[in-house]
Amino acid sequence: MGVVIPLEESKNKQASVKPLVDLTKSGMERVNQLILSKAGSDVQMIPEVANHLISSGGKRLRPMLTLATASMFGYEGDHHIKLATSVEFMHTATLLHDDVVDESDLRRGKNTARTIWGNQASVLVGDFLLGQAFRMMVEVGSLEALDVLSTAACVIAEGEVLQLSVAKNMETTEDDYLAVIRAKTAALFAAAAEVGPIVAGTDKATRSAMKSYGMNLGLAFQLVDDVLDYGGKAAETGKNVGDDFREGKITLPVILSYRRGTAAEREFWKESIEGGQNDDLRLEKALGLIGKYGALTDTIQRAQHYGTIARDALAPLPETPWKSALNDVIDFCISRVN
To answer: Which of 111-120, 232-241, 301-310 shows the highest mean pLDDT?
Structure first.
């Protein structure tokens, strides 16, 4: 089941993250080595749980942003390696915690850690990774970088709690939802992009530009993820189409469909999301309503809007292969729906 949404901009069909992967290849090799080292422990279950998720095939976009935004401003030390690893550990920890909160069984096409080792192990290993992340930040010795990443950790946690407060509530507004994803997803993208120029010793204007780039890229990224749950394919997304629906998650396509619907259609959404009536037949109806009200197309347009803001943040910077690669990442994130 799914809805294919064509993109208007044909250039996005060729969008690729490969330029960024190529530019950060040597740095990411060092990051991956550090990840394996810092995920180690004498407590056997810790590396087992951590490596299950770490090795599950994510693109590691966030640490690549840290490496890229340090290197594009001439940084030549190794602090960005530890900061990039810290960013990835923060991300991995939030995924472990998320899967427990959401009771998810599948991530990136594999069973979640909680289904193999249990909820307690997932939460505690996530805490271990957060601890290791902060140890590496301290080793770097930059109070500014520590401030940015520790603030992001707090904001992410606030986003998790905010999401709980609006969970399965069909009166959630678009503004409410944007506040959740700005905290839960975009804050770490923003921090990952800001700590690079911090260790490179750039001015505040450059730091702000990279923070804006990361924040808006993160918003676009999450909105496209929302679309993929109703319009993607399991093989491409690593989860079953409609998982958000089955879990009763409030995402933008649902919010738009609910608010634009008739009284009877709004009652359907309440029964499905709030009441937990979410079998395959109801998913088919949900997909039909989402299509009827153009909710996926409009969610993509929102993503493109934030992508444009991210591109504008980069615009004043000198033309370099790094800048070009970061622009390509914007196109890549949005083109995943094609």
So the answer is: 301-310
Tell me the β-bridge partners of 107. 110
Write down the pLDDT at residue 110.
84
- Residue 201 backbone dihedrals phi, psi, to 5 degrees: 75, 30
Encoded tokens for 164: 């709980």
Q: Tokens 């279950």 sit at which residue?
A: 45
Q: Which residues contact 105 (CB under 8 A, 6 or more apart)?
A: 111, 112, 115
Please report, rounded to a whole number, the percentage of residues in the chain having pLDDT higher than 70: 93
Cα separation of the two ends of the chain = 16
DSSP state for residue 10 in the 8-state scheme: G
Q: Measured between alpha carbons, how far is 305 from 287 in angstroms, rounded to an integer?
A: 24
pTM to 2 decimals?
0.92
DSSP state, residue 186: I
| Alpha-carbon gap, residue 21 to 48, rounded angstroms | 27
> Is the C-alpha dihedral spanning 317, 318, 319, 325 positive or negative?
negative
Which residues touch 287 (CB under 8 Å, ≥6 apart)?
1, 2, 3, 230, 242
Q: How far apart are CA 212 and CA 214, in angstroms?
A: 5
Please tell me the predicted confidence (pLDDT) of residue 12.
41
pLDDT digits (tens, 9 = 90+) for 72-125: 999 999 999 999 999 999 999 999 999 998 888 877 778 899 999 999 999 999
* Residue 245: both structure tokens together: 């629906």
Closest CA to 34 of 67, 69, 57, 70: 67
